[in-house]
Amino acid sequence: MDFRITIIAALVLVALAAGFWWRARTGRAKLVRSGEIVDLGKLKATRAGQPVTSFGKKATLLQFSTEVCSICVQTAKYFKELESKNPDLTHIEVDLTDRMDLAAHFNVMQTPTTLVLDRTGKVQARIGGAPKLNVIQQELAKLEIK
C-alpha cells in the first residue's frame, strides 16, 4: 500500500511540474532567427473571399488556427481589433484543419500559434498558445507599431 501512494504522489508531482512548465512557455514570444520569409502564395490565405497578396506596412500577425480551437476565436478577435486601430498592421488567419503541410512546415504543435512578421514577411517572433497582451504589444513596438 505504501508503495502505491509513493507512485501516485510522484506522478502528481511530475504532472504538476509539466503543467507549470507548459504554462510558463505558452503565450510568450520567442525570437526567430531563421530569416524565413513567408510565401503568401503557399499559405493560400483569403480575406473576404479574396486571396491575401500583401503584408502589413510595418507588421503582420500570421495566426494559425483550427476549427475546434476556442481560444483561436478570441485571439483573432483581439488581432482584428488591433488591426482596425492601426493601418500599418495586418492580421492573417490560416485554418490548419485541412492544411497539415503548413502545420508541418511551420512546426505548429498547438493552436493558436502566431508568427510576428516584419513588413517584408520575415518571421521575427513566434508565440505558441494564447498570446499575452503585453507580449503582443512588445513585439509590435519592436516593429514600430504603437
UniProtKB/TrEMBL annotation:
<protein>
    <submittedName>
        <fullName>Unannotated protein</fullName>
    </submittedName>
</protein>
<dbReference type="InterPro" id="IPR013766">
    <property type="entry name" value="Thioredoxin_domain"/>
</dbReference>
<feature type="domain" description="Thioredoxin">
    <location>
        <begin position="57"/>
        <end position="141"/>
    </location>
</feature>
<dbReference type="InterPro" id="IPR036249">
    <property type="entry name" value="Thioredoxin-like_sf"/>
</dbReference>
<dbReference type="Pfam" id="PF00085">
    <property type="entry name" value="Thioredoxin"/>
</dbReference>
